Amino acid sequence: MSLKVSLSFNGGMELLFNNVKQKTVEIPASINNSNPTTMKDLIRWIRDNLLKERPELFVSGETVRPGILVLINDADWELEGELKYEIKDADDIVFISTLHGG
């Protein structure tokens, strides 16, 4: 079984993903030993399957690096449990860089 998830990369994040701003992907419903797929699993999956360059600008350890706003279905991921959030079919997940050069 797989989950269909809409991903968006904004605020410069798209540069790390070959200038792709939006992509619908299918991910396994259970990436991690038959446990539900979480945001932690999704971030790892994005890093391994979609990220084209400079992973240090997207991830730090097992999470997104500071300065990246993450929205899950238009809500701040902090309200949804951050890395523990269990991905659901048709979720809309947005990554926005809040850091800009000057």
UniProtKB/TrEMBL annotation:
Keywords: Cytoplasm, Isopeptide bond, tRNA processing, Ubl conjugation pathway. Pathway: tRNA modification; 5-methoxycarbonylmethyl-2-thiouridine-tRNA biosynthesis. It is found in: Cytoplasm. C-terminal thiocarboxylation occurs in 2 steps, it is first acyl-adenylated (-COAMP) via the hesA/moeB/thiF part of UBA4, then thiocarboxylated (-COSH) via the rhodanese domain of UBA4. Its main location: cytoplasm. There is a cross-link at residue 102 (Glycyl lysine isopeptide (Gly-Lys) (interchain with K-? in acceptor proteins)). GO terms for biological process: protein urmylation; tRNA thio-modification; tRNA wobble uridine modification. CDD domains: Ubl_Urm1. The modification 1-thioglycine is found at residue 102. It comes from the Eukaryota. GO terms for cellular component: cytosol. It holds the Pfam family Urm1. PANTHER family: RURM1 PROTEIN (PTHR14986). Acts as a sulfur carrier required for 2-thiolation of mcm(5)S(2)U at tRNA wobble positions of cytosolic tRNA(Lys), tRNA(Glu) and tRNA(Gln). Serves as sulfur donor in tRNA 2-thiolation reaction by being thiocarboxylated (-COSH) at its C-terminus by the MOCS3 homolog UBA4. The sulfur is then transferred to tRNA to form 2-thiolation of mcm(5)S(2)U. Prior mcm(5) tRNA modification by the elongator complex is required for 2-thiolation. Also acts as a ubiquitin-like protein (UBL) that is covalently conjugated via an isopeptide bond to lysine residues of target proteins such as AHP1. Belongs to the URM1 family. This is Ubiquitin-related modifier 1. It comes from Ambispora gerdemannii. The gene is URM1.
